[in-house]
Design a protein that fits this description.
By secondary structure, this protein is α+β, with helices and mostly antiparallel strands. Helices cover 24% and strands 21% of the residues. The chain folds into three domains: 4-172, no CATH class; 179-322, Uridine Diphospho-n-acetylenolpyruvylglucosamine Reductase, domain 3; 325-447 and 461-549, 3-Layer(aba) Sandwich (Vanillyl-alcohol Oxidase, Chain A, domain 3). The structure holds flavin-adenine dinucleotide (FAD).
């Protein structure tokens, strides 16, 4: 086991980590996040977990051009705990952290790895369940500031790159999973939101999507998230910070349901940030949190897809919707049968249960090596929305052949591919797609959103690359991708999903009216990485614009970023961050990956 300290910090009593008991309205009976995965973000690199001595906190940071001058003296020792006033934080030093998929090259040795909890050092909790966790984040920021070190939060560690990583201070938010659903009275809610105050959800940063799905389904009235990714292990903040999306072409990606952010920034001061043009709460709610209220559209839109770099986000306020159902239908066809539908975003003639009407979620997964007539290399996966009346039982997805309940998410499919020799890739991929995407044999399988977009397994070395492109350029982008795969086979399908454009400044779905996301999940091997590189080069050579998923494999250097967003949009994001944080603060909450895109400091 890695060294663990018991300072104010301390290794501690486990708490229910889930729903708190106090707030403008107490939460429902607490289903914490997936309990088995409560420490999910702690992933040790094999054989390295716990390696190394317990250290003090002064391992030098590699020089960064914009890093502020480092302190010469060691950082101040952490003050002795004062029982009920100090939050409990488990601390590991020299901890080897890896992401959930143990993607090669992601993560590494962390000087201080903190797991704060919603209890005080003496084991007591607070009337406001989140209060010790908030205090812990404030203390950790102040401590990093004194030491002039970088600090960052990780969510579930599901990102497939180093967007969450810094080697100095990493805060594991797994135990900060308190939430409440709905406000009891009007006084803390802005007038425009009062009619839906029972649909506003306050969730601490480490609350997983699965916990929210469960809590919302159990609320009265029953609620649901408007959209999510294809599985449910992300945290609410981790998912939104990178712009996680499903295929909700009428709604947009997950950040679209956020209404306010509660951010711990420099000096351990904390702010409730909401748009000035559409405030969701009154100053009374900020006062309840002890936060300073900031109503600022630019800051809100920049920080909502903030890439973890606007501070430590303690919690969010989100807007849920009345519970609805999703009917899954998966059909295997020839690529030629669906090719035009992909290019035109038009399902006419595909023989879907929704007829010629575009379903709520439309997705096509293609085996790029089986595009010929009769090869059945394309899988149409749709989820049509249906309403569920109050009191009507929620649909339960039946267990299918082989014990299968769901159609698998793309990252899992890609990661399960074996690293086979190129000649075997087309068949291996085809077999994997049939088994995982799982055609429904003409049936529509009904479930809740949480039931359909369920669990997934770590793949022990999966990776993925995902593009966002204007939907009118899909044909050209697809042609460029297929030119690469025709010459250079690597084990990844090509999956198309469509998402309504979203307003966050560095949204990964920026193209109006709809951004097409093209994902190529695969096994994390040199061949796959070379395939990705060739695709980016082909798109660059053809002058085609694309964004890249912030939580997945990214091109080297900032050229794609400037081409995709344009300098004015990037400058808006930088300006919002500059207005919120001092140079030292921007450096402290940045990391090496963001530095490489000139976004970090
Ligand atoms: C199996 C699997 C399926 C996936 N499916 C999809 C999908 O369908 N659609 C899609 O778009 N993406 C998908 N992804 C990508 C994934 O949704 C994103 O990478 C997401 O950001 C991961 O969330 P997380 O909670 O693990 O956060 P992390 O990966 O741990 O962190 C992501 C970012 O959030 C920041 N962050 C986390 N918590 C805080 C906090 N409290 N304060 C400040 N910053 C914070 C981190 O610093 C980092 O910058 C999938 C990934 C996997 C592994």
């Amino acid at each position: 086991m890695p060294p663990t300290t018991k300072t104010p910090l301390g290794k501690g009593k486990r708490t229910n980590g889930g729903a708190g008991t106090a707030g403008p309205r107490p939460p429902r009976a607490g289903t914490p996040s997936k309990t088995a995965a409560a420490d999910r973000a702690i992933h040790a690199k094999s054989g390295r977990r716990g390696a190394g001595p317990q250290s003090t906190r002064a391992v030098p940071q590699p020089a960064t051009p914009t890093a502020p001058a480092r302190r010469r003296t060691p950082p101040a020792p952490t003050p002795a705990p004062r029982s009920t006033e100090e939050p409990l934080i488990e601390t590991r030093t020299n901890f080897a952290w890896a992401n959930w998929h143990t993607t090669s090259g992601v993560g590494g040795q962390v000087e201080s790895f903190y797991t704060p909890r919603n209890v005080w050092f003496d084991g007591t909790s607070s009337e406001q369940a989140w209060a010790p966790g908030l205090r812990a984040l404030c203390n950790l920021v102040r401590q990093a500031e004194v030491a002039q070190e970088r600090i960052r939060c990780i969510g579930s560690g599901w990102s497939l790159n180093d967007i969450a990583f810094t080697h100095q201070n990493l805060v594991n938010t797994a135990r900060l999973s308190s939430y409440f659903v709905g406000f009891r009275s009007d006084d803390m809610v802005a007038p425009a939101f009062r009619p839906i105050k029972n649909r506003l959800v306050f969730a601490q940063c480490g609350t997983q999507i699965v916990a929210l799905n469960n809590a919302l389904a159990a609320a009265e009235p029953r609620l649901a998230l408007p959209t999510s990714g294809a599985s449910n292990g992300q945290t609410i903040v981790g998912a939104t910070q990178t712009g996680t999306h499903g295929s909700a072409h009428e709604y947009g990606p997950c950040p679209n349901f956020l209404r306010a952010l509660h951010i711990v920034a420099e000096g351990g001061r904390h702010y409730l940030v909401q748009p000035a043009s559409r405030p969701v709460v009154t100053p009374a709610f900020a006062a309840y949190l002890g936060a300073e209220l900031k109503a600022d559209d630019e800051l809100f839109q920049a920080a909502t897809v903030g890439l973890g770099s606007f501070g430590l986000i303690h919690a969010v306020l989100l807007e849920a919707v009345p519970m609805y159902g999703l009917g899954r239908y998966v059909k295997q066809v020839d690529f030629g049968d669906v090719e035009q539908a992909i290019y035109d975003f038009d399902v006419t003639g595909l023989g879907l249960p929704t007829g010629n009407t575009m379903p709520w979620h439309f997705e096509v997964v293609v085996n790029p090596y089986r595009r010929g007539r009769g090869e059945k290399g394309a899988f149409i996966r749709t989820y049509e929305k249906f309403s569920i009346a109050p009191g009507e039982p929620l649909p339960i997805i039946p267990v299918g052949p082989g014990g299968k309940v769901n159609s698998e998410d793309l990252v899992t499919i890609g990661g399960l591919l074996t690293n086979v020799v190129p000649a075997l890739i087309p068949d291996a991929l085809q077999g994997q797609l049939v088994a995982s995407v799982a055609p429904t044999g003409g049936q529509v399988i009904r479930g809740t959103p949480g039931g359909q977009f369920d669990d997934s397994q770590p793949t022990n070395g999966g990776t993925s690359m995902e593009l966002g492109v204007p939907y009118r350029s899909i044909k050209d982008v697809a042609a460029a991708i297929f030119r690469v795969t025709d010459q250079y086979a690597f084990g990844a399908p090509v999956a198309f999903r469509w998402v309504k454009s979203s307003p966050q400044t560095l949204s990964y779905s920026p193209f109006a009216p709809i951004t097409c996301h093209i994902e190529m999940p695969g096994i994390d091997a040199m061949r796959t990485r070379e395939g990705y590189r060739r695709i980016w080069s082909a798109l660059d050579a053809a002058g085609l614009k694309y964004t890249c998923h912030w939580g997945q494999h990214l091109p080297v250097g900032p050229a794609w970023l400037t081409a995709a967003y344009g300098r004015p949009r990037i400058n808006r994001w930088l300006a919002a961050r500059r207005a919120f944080l001092s140079p030292a603060g921007r450096w402290m909450f940045g990391n090496v990956l963001l530095d490489t895109y000139q976004l970090g400091s």
